[in-house]
Amino acid sequence: MNLAIHPSVGVARLGNSEQLTNNESSECLSPETIGGLPLEPETLLPVTYFKDKAGRIKRQGQVFKVFDGESEITLENEQIASMVWTVHLANKKAAWYQYNELQGNLLYGPQNSYQARNVPLRNADEPDRQSLIIDPGPRTISGANATPIDFDRNSVPSDYPHASFPSDQPKYGSAIKTLGTLKTDDKGRLIVFGGYGHAGGDEALTSYGGSDTWHDDTADGPVYCVVTYKDGSTKTLKAWVVVGSPDFAPEIVNISSLDDTFFDIGVRYKNLVPDLYANGHFNFDYIANYKRDILPIIERISNYQWVANVQSMSGFFSYQFNFADNSEANRAKRQAYFDYFRKPDPKIGAVEKPQETLFSHANGGELPMMPMNSGSNSVSNTTVEKFMALDETQLFLLGQWALGRFEDTPEPAEFSVHPLDKASVGNCVGLPMCPGIEVTWSLQNPNLYESAYVIAHDGGLNGYNQSGLTPSRDECEGGGCQPGDLTKRMACPWQADFFQCTVQSVNFTEPSINKATLKTEQRTQTTQTWQLSLAKGESESTEVKANLNTPTTQVENAAQSALNEETLQLGSIEQVTLTNTTSKPQPLTPTYYSYWWPPQSPWDVLTGETTQLGQAQNNLSAGQQVNYQRGINSFTQMVEHWSALAFIKNKNAQNEGFPYFTEQERNNELFEYKEVTTSQLTGNPSDDGTSVPVFFINDNRHVIEQKSEKGKLMVQYFSERAFSPIKVCSEGLGLPRSGSTVRR
Q1: How far apart are CA 79 and CA 14, in angstroms?
Q2: Where is the L-lysine epsilon oxidase C-terminal domain (predicted)?
Q3: Of 85, 183, 527, 705, which one has the fewest beta carbons inside 10 Å?
Q4: Strand ranges (DSSP E) for 245-373?
Q5: Which of 409, 395, 380 is nearest to 513 (CA)?
Q6: What is the rounded average pLDDT of the residues 93-103?
Q7: pLDDT at 348
Q8: Dihedrals φ, ψ of 266, to 5°?
Q9: 147 to 25, 144, 221, 243, 381: CA distances (angstroms)
Q10: 722/387 Cα distance (integer angstroms)
């Protein structure tokens, strides 16, 4: 027997849809292919709608299955007596360090540890660090269609005395009452659902990365299955689950996904493909496969155009030559293509740092190098990594393609990785990681893995009943992972970071500098002018009227004389006074406009409303490229209204090769629209020929419910939920890390 749980690392996603009374589904299941749509729970067909009729996002559950080799094992197998599942979810964010880009990443050496970098703790004044963990303890479920079990206060196991939850009445936001739910299907498979997207705290928000007293309901933890055979023998299996934020463009895949990260770790550290990599080196005689290793990169680059303005990438999916042709005659073109991809920075001892280079100047030209994403630290000046590079294995395989060392077979042989293992993490961000969306750079560390695609466990089944979870241990040092370890480095609350993690202005001239202090001095110029006014025809001996004008900075002194007067200038005094000085960290110019991870956090998208009512509510024609987050204009609004965002879906998926991705299910009823003329902004009446569109949230619920039946259901949801308006610290949150609040 070769029993294993697949996926080895599953991914569930938050949603705020709750059980409905009209038989409408409030849930969906995670896709089983990379770039696939979530599935309907009953039919297992791709979902049509991501939200319920009230505009709330459906929770996405991860199905876990047991396999013996390639054959699935369920309760229907004659030799199986029982399958008992145990899951332990936790959220350690509030007990961990503040997020500081790559600081703390031990791949850069011990000098980059949290302690060496003096990275502050979140909630540093709280001495009982374990109490900061959201730890409901483990939950166990078995049988077919078992009664669902929540990770809430009411279901804590009697033999787990360490359970802890944040306040059920936070001053701001909404209370976290559960980290998720366990279910089984009709064959005894496990389904793990996450929380409802709640976030709350008792102090004002201070930062996109983490604010004291705040918690959210993302989570992660181990999954176990004890399989008992009818002969009495047992087998204990293990996996892991991550609960992340919604994937708002599930069919669009990151150029470097978490599957690529897992595969790279497996190849270089876990002997996954010894023909490809062994004894610390890649094998340059290895024959890559075009459809398996190269085409996915090209297709992902192509789909970025639906969620970002990346015109400079268009040549990399235009098929200006036959990408599948491995002939020597085609080699120069393949090599030219490959040369535009920057190499990764060495983590330690680097002299040259390719990831700080923006442009290729091949043959005297200029083109941004690939991929056109921000790197994992284009924000601060410590451990700088400005622009993204493919991971080592991706880049090597692309290099083999450039050299002609590849084949193009109709059905390429797959690597020895279960397709469900690839699919779950293949729909997550792999690069860049600042911090990321679902997980962060800790997953690049081989110490986190027992074997390829398998997370190392610290405590084992029910391994924390005696001690509880440890708030301070760093799993990157080795020893395996505890519940909550994979997500603890992420922003808290995640919605605030989601508001930020879109675009970045990246300096491209100074390799070691991302930001510098921009000092701005405002000065007032005061002019005093002495004048002698003479009536026309009078001599200078006439009685003199001397005027001391009011100080002014406007050049209008001459116009103040009457038309029938002549003015004799007798002198002037100019004074310059410093009135205000501001200093703020800003991206050092010149900069380049770079995207973070547009498949997970879209930025430039097409409107998709094609009915009169839809366009009246959206205030835009179909086919316009617009800002994805338009109308959500602050951190606090994103924490409250994240579920109002649209999903990006391929409306022409039935016709392969001709995609058409547009918005759908945006909660248009929440937003109002105004056209502000340019003259209103400038004060110049001649600027009234153009206008600027402004979208904003309408807090008048009566207006919202009048717009549609969906608007009525939205207002009903607003009334029923317990959400307390969020306050921002008195000093404000300052500028975003991108350095600008401008949105276009």
Answers
A1: 36
A2: 371-514
A3: 527
A4: 277-278, 281-282, 288-289, 359-360, 367-368
A5: 380
A6: 96
A7: 87
A8: -60, -40
A9: 17, 9, 21, 21, 52
A10: 42
